[in-house]
Amino acid sequence: MGNLRFRKEERLNRKKIMEELFEKGSSFLVFPLKVIHKVHPDPTQTIHQILISAPSKTFKKAVERNLVKRRIREGYRLNKALLTFPKTLCVAYIYVAKEILPSTTIHHSIKASLERLNKV
Fold first, then answer.
1. Could you tell me which residues come within 8 angstroms of residue 51 by beta carbon, excluding any fewer than 6 positions away?
2. How far apart are CA 110 and CA 87, in angstroms?
3. Residues 5, 80: contact at Cβ < 8 Å?
């Protein structure tokens, strides 16, 4: 089954890489998530890094944004073994639905996005 932890190294937190991801990355939609991806610019990086976002314009309360992000993070943590792309990726998950959907829906969309990322 593999390692099911979500470590600090898996978080995308370098501003320069984030800007490059949003400027030059490719994207697709797997409702309720918009997925933006790009090959990691650092060739020494061995772990895929992700960024999770829930818009404050849609979810005014931080509690709701945190719930959505927690569900996305959990779905990624459980399904990250499906991502077998040979190069290291930077991936941004942006929640685009207007309401909070159940965890199972989010998990299915993450699984579908990881399978699609393997084909890119």
1. 11, 12, 18, 21, 90, 91, 92, 93
2. 19
3. no
Evaluate the omega torsion of the peptide bond into residue 32 and state whether it is cis, within 30 degrees of 0.
yes
CA 70 to chain centre: 11
Length of the chain as a residue count: 120
Contact 50, 77 (CB under 8 A): no
Residue 100 CA to residue 94 CA, distance in Å, equals 13
**92 close to 33: Cβ distance less than 8 angstroms:** no
Confidence label for 1 from pLDDT (cuts 50, 70 and 90): low
**Mean pLDDT in residue range 94-105:** 96
Each residue of 12-62: pLDDT tens digit? 999 999 999 999 999 999 999 999 999 999 888 899 999 999 999 999 999
